């Protein structure tokens, strides 16, 4: 079996249920979810220390959920059952709280950076925000999984908390935004 089909050579691709232009907003949304999944893979590959196994395990779970979400976003058939579930949001919230407690309290904004894995988790945070915006843009006009927007919203918070936990476990301080005033009390 060949990997190329030549079916997309004229700027179209197949959703689950119909053929659309590659510029279709659903294609943009699930493509961004796929991009996010790839950046998570980079972050995981940079976590060489054994004190990150819990974060690596969580990131693998998220990668599977993002694959599910991409399938949900690509599905335009009637009477579908969504793959991404509300339980994933609750699990993310628990992990956010857990990782947030590890790092010192914030009083100023921080810049993306620190350990390479933490830096990539910041990239994941920003790509998750873009995926959320793109999904939100199609949410009003199309049938969407109810968990999609809350999940993507929590996911960016998860990446922020996880990046801080990675830096803290590595003994690397977050990079403070120097020109800012105290913003958190």
From TrEMBL:
Q: Name one GO biological process term.
A: cobalamin biosynthetic process
Keyword line: ATP-binding, Cobalamin biosynthesis, Nucleotide-binding, Transferase
Q: Where is the Cobalamin adenosyltransferase-like domain?
A: 3-165
Give the InterPro entries listed for this entry. CblAdoTrfase-like, CblAdoTrfase-like_sf, PduO-typ
Which spans are transmembrane here? none
For this UniProt entry, the molecular function terms from Gene Ontology, in alphabetical order, are: ATP binding; corrinoid adenosyltransferase activity
Any signal peptide, and if so, which residues?
none
Report the Pfam families cross-referenced here: Cob_adeno_trans
Q: Which reaction does it catalyse?
A: 2 cob(II)alamin + reduced [electron-transfer flavoprotein] + 2 ATP = 2 adenosylcob(III)alamin + 2 triphosphate + oxidized [electron-transfer flavoprotein] + 3 H(+); 2 cob(II)yrinate a,c diamide + reduced [electron-transfer flavoprotein] + 2 ATP = 2 adenosylcob(III)yrinate a,c-diamide + 2 triphosphate + oxidized [electron-transfer flavoprotein] + 3 H(+)
Q: What class of enzyme is it?
A: transferase
- Biochemical pathway: Cofactor biosynthesis; adenosylcobalamin biosynthesis; adenosylcobalamin from cob(II)yrinate a,c-diamide: step 2/7
EC number(s) for this protein?
2.5.1.17
Identify the domain of life.
Answer: Bacteria
Describe the subunit structure. Answer: Homotrimer.
Family membership: Belongs to the Cob(I)alamin adenosyltransferase family.
Q: Which PANTHER family match?
A: CORRINOID ADENOSYLTRANSFERASE, CORRINOID ADENOSYLTRANSFERASE MMAB
Q: Can you say what this protein is called? A: Corrinoid adenosyltransferase
Query: Native species of this protein?
Result: Alkalicoccus halolimnae
């Amino acid at each position: 079996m060949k990997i190329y089909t030549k079916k997309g050579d004229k700027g179209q691709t197949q959703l689950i249920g119909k053929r659309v232009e590659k510029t279709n907003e659903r294609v943009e949304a699930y493509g961004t979810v796929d991009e996010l999944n790839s950046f998570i893979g980079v972050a995981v590959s940079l976590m060489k220390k054994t004190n990150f196994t819990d974060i690596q395990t969580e990131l693998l779970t998220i990668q599977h959920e993002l694959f599910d979400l991409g399938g949900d976003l690509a599905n335009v058939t009637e009477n579908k059952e969504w793959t991404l579930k509300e339980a994933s949001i609750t699990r993310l919230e628990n992990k956010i709280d857990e990782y947030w407690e590890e790092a010192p309290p914030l009083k100023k904004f921080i810049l993306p950076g620190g350990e390479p894995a933490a830096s990539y988790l910041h990239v994941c945070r920003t790509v998750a925000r873009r995926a959320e915006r793109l999904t939100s843009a199609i949410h009003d006009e199309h049938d969407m999984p109810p968990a999609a927007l809350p999940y993507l919203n929590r996911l960016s918070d998860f990446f922020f908390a996880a990046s801080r936990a990675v830096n803290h476990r590595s003994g690397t301080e977050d990079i403070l935004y120097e020109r800012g005033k105290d913003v958190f009390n």
